[in-house]
Structure prediction request, 219 residues.
Amino acid sequence: MTVGLVLLAFGNLILTGVAAAFFLLSGLFTQRPVGWEAAYVFGTPVTVELPSSCEIETIIVQGSRGPSVGECEGATWTVDGQTRTGTLFSFAADIEREGYQLVFTGEARALDNRVYGRPDRQGIVFALTELTAAGIGLLTLVGCGLTALLPERRLGRRTSRGRRARRLWRDSDIEELHKLGLTLPETPRPVALWVCIAEIAFIVMAAGVYSFLVVRGSL
Prediction:
């Protein structure tokens, strides 16, 4: 296994771990349900009926008061003609009281035995970008493992072509090129570096696409 391949695998291991940690811990730091944003995106749109009471909690982050989040146990909704009962998580602004009954006025999507109200826009973008980064890192790790199983001779021949080409040049030849104002052609960048650049570009592009879809209202 080449040094570049090892560094690529190690870098993507860190990328996957950091992205997964941010995704899992972001809910704990903001005192919100873990994976709320992703669950809303991948959930099924439903109409929710609330119980007579819900627990409302005000989020305070770094001394500043944030939006209140409501947790309603015993909420009911219908999916594929079947009525289900579970817990609703949403902003308290989407929960209103009409007489003795609570009414949910926002958009909700169900996933498993929970239903989620629409989170904030930046939360959706960050969550999907974190999942994308973790997925890219994991796929690249698998690719590194498969590449390591290939015969070393084939890989060695391809990666050493640039080095052999430079060895053909003598020091005197290089000096003559410098006198003429010319330079020796540079050795092509390692494949691992190009892979890293492509990964970063894809993550940035994905974040831009998610932002566009959220602003447009498609997510």
